[in-house]
């Protein structure tokens, strides 16, 4: 049974559809890359899974149970946590306070200190700067903090929305290596990205979206070797 299964999903904003019959699944323990250009509907997809948007049609099934229509905090309780595009940190709060906010659910609070130690092992810089205001961090450091805040909720599925947004190329490479490390520690990841090559390079499988439709899918190695994808997204 897939960890997450999306069936014929339609969603959008008010009466304007942005997703058209999207179907895919995420297996437990994998990195699944959902790639495509701006306007493809990737962020809309994550917002719908998170409960921030209500679907027009279709099903979202997590651990065998339909979750479409649930409020966002109920979806977090079930184990789906999103790292939003643009980080959306509390700038005037400290690094540590931002992390504590990530563990507001009861189960996460019960394991807060244990999770915090694991976070500081993964991101030593955050340990060094835990009393520093989040707004004073660099872009790469803020992305680390946004990711760490989501991990404080102890997710079963971590959804990452354009984590490389605004980062220099060197930092992008480091970021994707960190995502790989998080996955190796047992966290299933749904990765939404415009950096097609980097995302597919660390993913087990991938889907390509265009204008609210899935147009390609398969094992990452196969997609990276596909001539259509090379021409459309990799400039080859």
Summarize the structure.
This protein has 236 residues and is of the alpha/beta class. It is 39% helix and 26% strand.
Textual characterization of the structure:
The chain is an alpha/beta fold and 236 residues long. It has two domains: 1-79 and 155-236, P-loop containing nucleotide triphosphate hydrolases (Rossmann fold, 3-Layer(aba) Sandwich), CATH 3.40.50.300; 88-152, no CATH class. Helix content is 39%, strand content 26%. Strands 6-7-8-3-9-10 form a six-stranded mixed beta sheet, sandwiched between helices. Helix 3 (95-102) packs parallel to helix 7. The chain is globular and about 45 Å long. The model has no long low-confidence stretch (mean pLDDT 91).
Which key terms come to mind for this protein?
about 240 residues; alpha/beta; Rossmann fold; 2 domains; 4-stranded antiparallel beta sheet; 11 helices
Counting DSSP H or I runs of 4 or more residues, the number of helices is 11
Overall body shape:
globular
Cα distance spanning the termini? 37 Å
Q: Largest sheet, if any?
A: 6 strands, mixed
Order of helices and strands: EEEHEEHEHHHHHEHEHEEHH
Looking at CATH, the homologous superfamily of the largest domain is P-loop containing nucleotide triphosphate hydrolases
How helical, in percent, are the residues?
25-40%
Strand content: 25-35%
The CATH class of the largest domain is identified as: Alpha Beta
CATH architecture of the largest domain: 3-Layer(aba) Sandwich
């Amino acid at each position: 049974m897939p960890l997450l299964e999306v069936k014929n999903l339609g969603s959008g904003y008010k009466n304007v559809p942005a997703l058209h019959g999207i179907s895919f699944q995420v297996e437990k323990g994998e990195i699944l890359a959902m790639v495509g250009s701006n306007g493809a509907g990737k962020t809309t997809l994550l917002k719908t899974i998170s409960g921030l948007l209500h679907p027009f049609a279709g099903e979202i099934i997590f651990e065998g149970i339909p979750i479409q229509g649930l409020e966002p905090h109920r979806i977090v309780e079930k184990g789906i946590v999103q790292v939003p595009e643009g980080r959306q940190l509390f700038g005037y709060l400290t690094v540590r306070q931002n992390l504590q906010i990530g563990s507001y659910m009861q189960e996460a609070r019960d394991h807060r200190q244990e999770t915090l130690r694991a976070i500081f092992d993964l991101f030593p810089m955050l340990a060094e700067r835990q009393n520093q205001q989040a707004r004073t961090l660099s872009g790469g450091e803020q992305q680390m903090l946004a990711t760490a805040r989501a991990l404080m909720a102890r997710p079963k599925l971590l959804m990452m929305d354009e984590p490389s947004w605004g980062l220099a190329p060197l930092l992008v490479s480091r970021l994707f290596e960190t995502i790989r490390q998080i996955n190796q520690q047992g966290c299933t990841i749904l990765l939404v990205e415009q950096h097609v090559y980097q995302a597919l390079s660390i993913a087990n499988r991938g889907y390509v979206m265009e204008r609210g439709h899935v147009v390609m899918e398969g094992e990452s190695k196969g997609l990276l070797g596909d001539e259509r994808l090379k021409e459309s997204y990799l400039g080859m």
